Amino acid sequence: MNFASIRFSLRGLAKIQGARRLKPPRPPITIAMLRALHSSLDLDDPFDACLWAACACAFWGLMRWGEVTVSGRTVFSPTTHLARVNAHLLVDSFDKEYVRLDLPKAKTSEPGKLQSVFMPTGGDLCPAKALSNLERVVPASPSDPLFSWRDRLGAVRPLVRKAALSRVNEVLASAGWGNAFGHSFRIGGASYLLGQGVSPEIVRIAGRWKSLAYELYIRSFQNILSKHFVDVMV
Q1: Which helix (H) or strand (E) holds 14?
Q2: 5, 100, 127, 183: which sits with the fewest CB atoms below 10 Å from its CB?
Q3: Which domain holds residue 35?
């Protein structure tokens, strides 16, 4: 990447952010936190199975929390939110499986146009496994919310933002961590991928950012510093 493109990206970020940052930086979800969620949630419980699928997709898909949850139990709409029909398990040109979620509406997409989220598969934190488990525990129709669970009466209910984050923080607090925020999954996923040496441009495309939004990476730089500075200390 040349200096001209870096300056261009930073100017774009400055226009977006301005001098209006009033909220402190959101802490990232780390792999250790994700593993704690995976091991602590009851994946045979409808709500927890739904929550784990949302967490796995939000992390690996660099998704906004509002893309995997809804603001209230009565506001779900298949024309706005992810439904079961929007989830696909596919195979790429290298014969590797991947997950594609087709967002009916997204913050950075044009009105009426789908925006797709792509996720890798594999390992115990695999989003495909999480979605498959959700389908097993919470059967639902194609038009029902993708991230949904069944209450004691058997009614399908969408994953509500506040309740979902409350359960996440309950688990994290029991493991000795502080509170996470919805955006923590998106930031954590980006930080992890960068720490593993994935190109910032690939991370930008995967996260559907319009620019190289450096601030989102740098704010959690301390979590990936050792990966990039390995063997330089004397």
Answers
A1: helix 3-17
A2: 5
A3: 26-223
Say how far apart CA 72 and CA 220 lie, in whole Å: 31
Give the global pTM. 0.82
Question: Six-digit token pair at 31?
Answer: 């792999």
Taking the C-alpha atoms of residue 159 and residue 148, their distance in angstroms, rounded to an integer, is 5
Say what the pLDDT of residue 16 is. 47
CB contact at 8 A, 100 and 118 = yes
Residue 3 lies in a domain: no
Instruction: Look at residue 177 in the predicted model and tell me its pLDDT.
Output: 92
Q: Output phi, psi for 51, to 5 deg.
A: -65, -40
Does residue 18 belong to any structural domain of this protein?
A: no
**CATH code, 184:** 1.10.443.10
Identify the segments of the chain with pLDDT beneath 50. 13, 16-22
b/e string for 166-201 if b means 16 or more Cβ within 10 A? ebbeebbeeeebeebbbbbbbbbbbbbbbbeeeebe
CA distance 78 to 101: 13
Q: Give per-residue pLDDT as tens, 166-204.
A: 999 999 999 999 888 888 899 899 888 888 888 888 888
Q: Does the residue 14 lie in any domain? A: no
DSSP state of 228: H
Q: Is 216 left (phi over 0), alpha (psi -120 to 50) or beta?
A: alpha
- Give me the residues paired with residue 145 across strands: 83
- The DSSP bridge partners found for residue 148 are 158
* Within a domain: 119: yes
**Whole-angstrom distance, CA of residue 150 vs CA of residue 168:** 19
